[in-house]
Design goal:
The chain is mainly α. It contains five helices and no strands. The protein is globular.
Length: 87
């Protein structure tokens, strides 16, 4: 599936520290399949590593909205809020 290929490319970019490429690939995965919470969660992590707490929080909220049972969505939200100093 196309979305999974973009996710894999995003994961590879994230692991090598290429945050811009990671975000671009996760965005392409979301464009291909916007119903998969993992793509938002991964992009949230990439935004957070890049220092973009606002977008990290937005994607964490999307993760939770799509799948409220996915615990990592809440940890992404907490990390983003912490980065934004919203305790």
């Amino acid at each position: 599936e196309e979305a999974e290929q973009f996710k894999a490319a995003g994961n590879k970019a994230l692991q090598s520290g290429n945050l811009t490429a990671a975000i671009e690939n996760y965005t392409k995965a979301i464009d291909a399949d916007g119903t998969n919470h993992v793509y938002y969660s991964n992009r949230s992590a990439a935004y957070l590593k890049k220092g973009d707490g606002n977008n990290a929080l937005e994607d964490a909220m999307s993760t939770i909205a799509i799948n409220p049972d996915f615990s990592k969505g809440y940890s992404r939200k907490g990390a983003a809020l912490h980065a934004l100093k919203r305790y």
